[in-house]
């Protein structure tokens, strides 16, 4: 895919400028305020910034054409290099990276959406309650023939309504991977790079994808995509803890914890590849990143290197 929109090209240039500035040693509180104002101006700005942030936290997984060490040593004179790197990442078919065009498309389509660190509750006419987690976008269709929520990106918790009359169409949540039909019920749905995660809190759901159909009961959870499906170990009734502001980790890799908490914050946190898979267990406040980092410092063999106020790296603890 090639970028044809002048707006999209300008956004990439602006993101490059902001990334170089945020990595500099003399970034000020005024600069941070200016960045926040720029983010507030346009949903497309926020989408592109989040994708660039994702890029920086996963530099060791980029294709060989992208020099990850070059990214770590950028300065104001290397704006051209940053532009080249961002152009590769935003348009190349790299697993886990969405194009700017995709982000713009979702922004235009969404009936309801949340920003970083925001949650929202939407009440539908049939009494169904949709709770949106951070960085979530949905569309809704509620007619005599159809009751559907399309989860474009992010995470929702659904409590189906009691007002639906006899003969009403079934309530469904759709994602790019398949359809979740409510048989009751209360359930959590989350889109990820690996597929769609579903966790049932009450009653059951019927999941239909291209290659399978199955009923998922209360207390069960499933990860599925267009090619495969499998139960999620240690996930039952834990995913929806975000509704209480918590993330419950049971022997999860450190990178997974940081990725999860990163959904709620603008700060960029990268992890040295030597410690990415350290196992972590505990209950963490999703909104208190500083508190979580302090706890990790006390309990794990790690150090934290602050590149700037907005970009930090978790590294192995020094033996010195």
Automatic annotation (TrEMBL):
Domain FecR N-terminal: start-end pairs: 13-53
Gene3D superfamilies listed in its UniProt record: 2.60.120.1440
Protein's name according to its UniProt entry: FecR family protein
Membrane-crossing segments per the record: 82-100
Domain FecR protein stretches: 111-205
Pfam families: DUF4880, FecR
InterPro entries in UniProt: FecR, FecR_N, Ferrdict_sens_TM
Keywords: Membrane, Transmembrane, Transmembrane helix
Residue runs in coiled coils: none
């Amino acid at each position: 895919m090639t970028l044809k929109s002048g707006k999209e090209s300008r956004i990439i240039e602006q993101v490059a400028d902001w990334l170089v500035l945020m990595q500099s040693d003399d970034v000020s509180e005024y600069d941070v305020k200016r960045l926040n104002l720029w983010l507030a101006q346009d949903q497309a700005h926020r989408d592109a910034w989040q994708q660039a942030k994702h890029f920086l936290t996963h530099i060791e997984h980029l294709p060989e054409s992208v020099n990850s060490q070059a990214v770590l040593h950028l300065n104001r004179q290397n704006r051209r290099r940053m532009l080249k790197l961002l152009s590769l990442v935003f348009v190349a078919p790299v697993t886990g990276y969405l194009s700017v065009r995709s982000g713009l498309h979702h922004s235009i389509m969404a009936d309801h959406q949340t920003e970083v660190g925001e949650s929202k509750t939407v009440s539908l006419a049939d009494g169904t309650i949709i709770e949106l987690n951070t960085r979530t976008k949905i569309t809704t269709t509620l007619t005599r023939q159809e009751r559907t929520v399309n989860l474009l990106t992010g995470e929702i918790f659904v409590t189906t309504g009691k007002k639906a009359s006899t003969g009403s169409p079934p309530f469904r949540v759709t994602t790019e991977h398949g359809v979740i039909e409510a048989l009751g019920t209360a359930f959590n749905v989350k889109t990820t790079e690996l597929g769609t995660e579903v966790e049932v809190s009450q009653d059951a759901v019927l999941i239909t994808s291209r290659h399978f159909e199955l009923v998922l009961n209360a207390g069960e959870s499933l990860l599925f995509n267009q090619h495969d499906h499998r139960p999620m170990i240690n996930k039952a009734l834990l995913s929806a803890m975000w509704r209480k502001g918590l993330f419950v980790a049971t022997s999860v890799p450190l990178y997974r914890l940081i990725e999860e908490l990163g959904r709620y914050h603008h700060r960029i946190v990268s992890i040295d590849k030597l410690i990415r898979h350290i196992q972590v267990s505990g209950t963490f406040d999703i909104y208190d990143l500083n508190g979580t980092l302090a706890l990790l410092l006390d309990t794990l063999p790690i150090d934290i290197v602050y590149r700037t106020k907005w970009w930090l790296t978790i590294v192995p603890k020094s033996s010195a």
